[in-house]
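Olfactory receptor
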Amino acid sequence: MEENILFNQTTVVTYFRLRGLSVNQKVQIAMFTMFLVFYLLTLMGNILIVITIIYDRRLHTPMYFFLCNLSFIDVCHTTVTIPKMLIDTWFEDKLISFNACVTQMFFLHLFACTEIFLLTIMAYDRYVAICKPLQYMTIISWKVCVLLAVAIWTGGTIHSISLTSLTIKLPYCGPDEIDNFFCDVPQVIKLACTDTHIIEILIVSNSGLISVVCFVVLVVSYAVILVSLRQRISAGRRKALSTCAAHLTVVTLFLGHCIFIYSRPSTSLPEDKIVSVFFTAVTPLLNPIIYTLRNEDMKNALKKLMGRAEGKGKN
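Tokens:
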């Protein structure tokens, strides 16, 4: 009996089992089709935005520089989780190695945190463009853009390393089932064979605080912008409102997930998986739709790019 207890205490988990979204095979096949379409559209939409911005010199402005970064992050962010989930729909046992789980958590938080910082920078960019148009190119110069890009990627990396380090230092000796379709810090630390109360507080104070603070900054920025727009002529006001509305939609969807998941203790709720689907699959797909269908400059650039491609095809 004592030998069995000793064995159980020293057992090290090398694989985790992902519960996924459903155990029904028909439902899983339907989800495979749906998420495959979502993933392909996300890749095509965001990659097309990146190519269009690089190709069209008229879009070589700070606003589209940040938008290009956003599309790149969305491609990376959705690729961290969706391909693995698509493969798992065909297997009853959805296994992921400990190292692969840690890698997935690292890149998930890297891209998510970087996107949060980027959305905040984009709000500041719109604030300067609308409230201080004559000083815009001085305040948001190309040098500043590059420095801000380096800063947000550095901040995202530091955040991800800190959370991942806290997670891998914990002992894991069973259970091994993660109640989701990908590895995330709150679900993984619940499986640790030790008290994780302090770790949970650190996660809330890190990820939760970042999400809440950035959301407050964004709301304040848009409030100031809306007050400023009251003095504008109707045409300029409509264009500015359209841009801000698109940005605010993305912010609400993305930061809503982060606040919901990371601003509370690591307890599972039925809504967690639904929110996670929006976070990993839906929001990256909506970004290219929102930023192209509501943006005349992007639509004109896309038409120009398509026209050039058709011309080369005929030749």
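The radius of gyration is 22 Å.
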